[in-house]
Design a protein that fits this description.
Length: 196
Amino acid sequence: AMVLARLRALVPETDILLKLRSKVPDPDQLERLLGKVERPQVLLDYLGRVDNPTELESLIDATAKSGIPQGFSRAQFAQFGGRLRASAGKFGSDIRIQGSRATGAALPGSEVDVAVRVPPEEFDRLIKQQFKSPNPGSSNERTMLRSITDGRIQRGELRLSGEGNALARDFGFKEVQISVVEIGGAFDNGPWIMVP
């Protein structure tokens, strides 16, 4: 009831809430799912990938219990984690897989979403470090402002595109998106799987 109350306070009886209620008629189950997949629009997307909400809940629980994101073996995930920590660990030690691979509801071409979670003060420092002082009105300034609004610095601005492409190629994924994510920001959402 607490998650639904928060959702209602943020988004009163909107189209999204109505759609969620039609896909998940059991209010207790909807509450549990919103506790696991915090962004209502993302939950709707995941519900569209399965036959019923119980299947999604089971996928999320099984993936969390295994500690291995969808599409990886245990050995592959350990190897992936080692390489990821070697390249992205300089931005922070709280590195997690999030998104559809952490829920177990990834589609065949789904990317691997990596979040390096940092506190707000560190996020502000990294914004200054990565963007410096962009020219007013420039595309770099617009990207910086988008990063601040989203609470997310993407791999290009982190100079990790090459490593993301290499990880995708070496592990057979379409894309590996590596981002620094501000704790409490718009993209700081579970479910997560800790990177070894």
